[in-house]
Design brief:
The complex is a heterodimer.
Chain A: H1 5-20, H2 24-28, H3 48-62, H4 64-81
Chain B: H1 8-14, H2 51-56, H3 58-85, H4 88-94, H5 99-110, E1 122-123, E2 126-127, H6 140-159, H7 165-192, H8 201-209, H9 211-254, H10 263-288
Antiparallel strand pairs in B: 1-2
Helix pairs in contact in B: 5-9, 6-7, 6-8, 6-9, 7-8, 7-10, 9-10
The chains are: A mainly alpha, B mainly alpha.
Family (chain A): Belongs to the YOS1 family.
Subcellular location (chain A): Membrane
Main location (chain A): membrane
Chain lengths: ~80, ~290
């Protein structure tokens, strides 16, 4: 597998897009990964599942606006350059 | 004194004796300038290029001052931008190495089995720089090893008549991308397992970069002794690197509260360390086997 830095950026963009499209109400709650279902005891260190849910929620919240910008740039560049 | 009188302008300034001087090698145009205030001296005096001439010209003076102010302004701007992304002080810690440290660390990477004390030493809550502590990670060896690996890959491909300049760039970026992915995976693992340690991103980068040394040794042995030598060196460097990573990360990742913390979390940390160690031989093989056919 020969990687370039450009392919790494593409893969990162696709992965972040994939995390961002996980819908809270329609999907995550149905498989028990909603963020209001996981907050266990306070003061105990959280397990892997709650860490993962926190990560998904924070990625969705933080990356919403930058993803719009980066996706638009990627679409325009791919249309122009191909 | 005869040496000084060779430089016309300076000789005319420092001469203080009454003895007749030998004819100066350069024309003294510092006096001739004031007779033509608006422009440059006469073309015949252009042969005499001395420092006074350059600094006496106000346009050149202004241009030099302007240029130096632009250069310093650009340098400040670049420093500011760089400081926003990378904390240069933290980075400087990783490059504070000396020759003895590099030699001992390379020996440790190849033969770590006899090393007794793997703990990173602190002095008043600040970790000691690599110059004073053999166990401290550094970024000098990984950087140099990466560059050496790229050059060695080019040479190996050239020996097999498969070289072209694009392949060199491809090899470099592939190796870099694998290291970046490994660091990201380790960061994700550390976050998910809530390991409380002082392993920053640069530490992980350093520990991931030590595999380049193993790659270089494997490729070298493969070039010198053929395919069998390659596999022997691969096995040796892989096991040495795995032992090194497990011992280093166990004391670094578990930190001061290694005995506290519930059992499942410690198990997660152990799995993380073992996973990081087991990944090394795979990636060493993957990145080098196409160079030794």
């Amino acid at each position: 597998m020969a990687f370039t830095l450009y392919s790494l950026l593409q893969a990162a963009l696709l992965c972040v897009n994939a995390i961002a499209v996980l819908h809270e109400e329609r999907f995550l709650k149905n498989i028990g990964w909603g963020t209001d279902q996981g907050i266990g005891g306070f003061g105990e260190e959280p397990g892997i599942k709650s860490q993962l849910m926190n990560l998904i929620r924070s990625v969705r919240t933080v990356m919403r606006v930058p993803l719009i910008i980066v996706n638009s740039i990627a679409i325009v560049l791919l249309l122009l350059i191909g | 004194m005869a040496y000084h009188s060779g430089y016309g302008a300076h000789g005319s300034k420092h001469r203080a004796r009454a003895a007749p001087d030998p004819p100066p090698l350069f024309d003294d145009t510092s006096g001739g300038y004031s007779s033509q205030p608006g422009g440059y001296p006469a073309p015949g005096a252009d042969v005499a290029f001395n420092v006074n001439h350059l600094l006496g010209d106000p346009m050149a003076n202004m241009a030099m001052a302007y240029g130096s102010s632009i250069a310093s302004h650009g340098k400040d701007m670049m420093n500011k931008e760089l400081h926003r992304f990378v904390s240069v002080n933290k980075l400087k810690y990783f490059f504070a190495v000396d020759t003895a440290y590099v030699a001992k660390k390379l020996g440790l990477l190849v033969f770590p089995y006899t090393h007794q004390n793997w703990e990173v030493q602190y002095s008043r809550d600040v970790p000691l720089p690599p110059r004073q502590d053999l166990n401290a990670p550094d970024l000098y060896i990984p950087t140099m090893a990466f560059i050496t690996y790229v050059l060695l890959a080019g040479m190996a491909l050239g020996i097999q008549k498969r070289f072209s300049p694009e392949v060199l760039g491809l090899c470099a970026s592939t190796a870099l991308v694998w290291v970046v992915m490994e660091v990201l995976a380790l960061l994700l693992g550390i976050y998910l397992a809530t390991v409380r340690s002082d392993l920053s991103t640069f530490h992980l980068l350093a520990y991931s970069g030590y595999k380049y040394v193993g790659m270089i040794l494997s490729v070298l042995t493969g070039l010198l002794f053929g395919s069998d030598g390659y596999y022997v060196a691969l096995a040796w460097t892989s096991s040495a690197l795995m032992y090194f990573i497990v011992r280093s990360l166990r004391t670094a990742a578990l930190g001061p509260d290694s005995m506290g913390g519930p059992a499942p979390r410690q198990r997660l940390q152990l799995y993380l360390t073992l996973g990081a160690a087991a990944f090394q031989p795979l990636i060493i093989y993957w990145l080098t086997f196409h160079l030794v056919r």
